[in-house]
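Dear H.,

Thanks for agreeing to be a second pair of eyes. The structure we're designing against is below in token form, covering all 541 positions.
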């Protein structure tokens, strides 16, 4: 979980001289930006608000998501990181303990959080990047369109020539006065057929209101008050990605939540009772996704096809623009929801005995997150703010109009949006809302999607909360792809520093030449597939 407090510096204290570049957030995108800028001669300070770098790659998401991508599009720093992971597993002779071997023996796309953190820290140290832990951006000062400095929540003031906001939320960007969007655009705004409110087609039977007619926890609204295709203020749901073990020798008990209320899971209880009455078998895997990883570790995730899972539908609504104090409360609520669900599945009378046994057989893995009670450090924020920059990427840009003259990298993941909320159809039926699953295509990421409009800010790059619509953002929101945009942002920032120019004026041809020389994939390659048609998955929705 994120902690807004002060921890010891990873390196020496901040130098008296100002850095050339300040990178905000030590997520994979920020790590890539910091290292590539430092390698190009820039003096870089990386600000990480928590105690640990690596974002979700070191907090429970132990995959590159390559199973739903075209692997040839993963190049540059991202490919280097996965190769370094492969080297680690080869040197430590633990690669063979994973049941599903990666096709390229020198590249690892499935890993462990603790190993990812070690590799990231080694790479940051080698590049000479200075890391500041434990403080978030508080205020941003500007002179016209130029950021002149930032103040952190611990009172530290920093100046730099160029700033990079790599955070999931775009907190520095927002404080710099750059325009952004939150939630989902309507179908009409950008002509996107997958945009806006999207009701599932299959109603689910469960009591949706209490005795007073008030909507039960987990239900956000009445369907009659929402319109298919309309804009909506909330992004897709968030959840924690716990790392668990089945083998008792690796387990520590899963703790009970601080605040438990079985009513939060009444929809699930009703569904389970209905399945039992119909004599339909239920497994734990019908409710929670459990992915096998390396060395006896399993990763828990929200199951998209489930009617009720780890995704805290509705709990994410206020996160993007919330204060740090409000976010701390939202995080705690998500952890209570998560641990409460696991406690419910292990103990509640509505849960079939088989499911209870499957749940009780799991424990937190003792070798992960040892300084945090073996629970992940960060909430999985799938989407928050999205910049409105020089070019807004839309569904068309990632599916049909996929070639861009200012390409700085490639994306290819499916358009993958988890549900946003549950809505009541009547007192006894509900539907989940917000899911998108569309075929992935190789598409070029334009530099203009990383730059604010010139009239708003001229020394800021935003490679994470980039200029995408909600639908298009569903192809960008992956640590592997964010390392690609971070790589480009780091190189571009170093160029802007050297030449003393606005980030919008960086020579695109020169930037592209540098990126190609660093093995970043920015071009369509002859003979390589452009469509992820070889992948198996659920029908498009």
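And this is the sequence the design step returned. I haven't edited it by hand at all.
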């Amino acid at each position: 979980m994120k902690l807004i407090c002060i921890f010891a510096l990873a390196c020496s204290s901040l130098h008296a001289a100002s850095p050339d570049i300040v990178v905000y957030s030590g997520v994979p995108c920020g790590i890539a930006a910091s290292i590539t800028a430092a390698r190009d001669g820039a003096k870089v300070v990386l600000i990480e608000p928590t105690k640990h770098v690596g974002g979700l790659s070191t907090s429970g998401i132990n995959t590159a998501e390559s199973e739903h991508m075209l692997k040839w599009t993963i190049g540059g720093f991202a490919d280097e990181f996965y190769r370094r992971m492969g080297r680690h597993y080869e040197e430590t002779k633990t690669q063979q303990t994973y049941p599903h071997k990666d096709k390229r023996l020198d590249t690892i796309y499935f890993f462990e959080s603790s190993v990812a953190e070690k590799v990231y820290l080694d790479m940051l140290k080698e590049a000479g990047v200075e890391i500041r832990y434990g403080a978030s951006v508080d205020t941003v000062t500007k002179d016209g369109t130029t950021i002149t400095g930032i103040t952190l929540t611990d009172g530290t003031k920093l100046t730099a020539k160029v700033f990079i906001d790599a955070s999931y939320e775009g907190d520095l960007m927002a404080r710099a006065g750059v325009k952004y969007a939150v939630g989902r655009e309507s179908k009409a705004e950008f002509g996107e057929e997958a945009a806006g409110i999207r009701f599932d087609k299959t109603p689910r039977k469960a009591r949706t209101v209490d005795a007073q007619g008030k909507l039960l926890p987990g239900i956000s609204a009445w369907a009659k008050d929402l319109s298919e295709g309309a804009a909506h203020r909330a992004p897709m749901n968030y959840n924690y990605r716990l790392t668990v073990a089945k083998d008792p020798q690796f387990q520590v008990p899963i703790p009970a939540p601080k605040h438990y209320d079985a009513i939060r899971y009444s929809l699930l209880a009703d569904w389970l009772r209905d399945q039992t009455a119909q004599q339909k078998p239920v497994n734990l895997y019908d409710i929670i996704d459990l992915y096998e990883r390396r060395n006896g570790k399993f990763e828990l995730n929200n199951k998209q096809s489930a009617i009720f899972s780890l995704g805290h539908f509705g709990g994410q609504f206020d996160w993007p623009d919330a204060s740090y104090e409000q976010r701390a409360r939202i995080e705690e609520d998500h952890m209570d929801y998560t641990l409460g669900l696991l406690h419910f599945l292990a103990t509640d009378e509505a849960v079939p005995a088989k499911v209870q046994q499957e749940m009780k057989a799991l424990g937190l893995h003792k070798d992960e997150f040892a300084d945090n009670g073996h629970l992940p450090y960060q909430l999985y924020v799938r989407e928050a703010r999205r910049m409105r920059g020089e070019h807004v990427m839309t569904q068309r840009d990632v599916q049909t109009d996929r070639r861009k003259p200012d390409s700085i990298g490639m994306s290819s993941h499916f358009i993958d949006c988890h549900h946003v909320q549950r809505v009541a159809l009547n007192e006894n039926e509900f539907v989940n809302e917000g899911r998108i699953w569309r075929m992935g295509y190789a598409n070029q990421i334009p530099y203009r999607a990383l730059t604010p409009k010139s009239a708003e800010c001229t020394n800021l790059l935003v490679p994470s909360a980039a200029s995408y619509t909600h639908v298009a953002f569903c192809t960008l929101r992956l640590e592997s792809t964010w390392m690609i945009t971070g790589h480009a942002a780091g190189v571009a920032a170093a160029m802007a520093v050297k030449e003393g120019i606005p980030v919008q004026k960086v020579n695109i041809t020169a930037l592209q030449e540098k990126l190609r020389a660093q093995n970043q994939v920015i071009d369509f390659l002859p003979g390589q597939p452009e469509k992820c048609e070889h992948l198996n998955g659920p029908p498009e929705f």
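Two observations from my side: The first helix runs from residue 28 to 39. The radius of gyration is 23 Å.

Warmly,
E.
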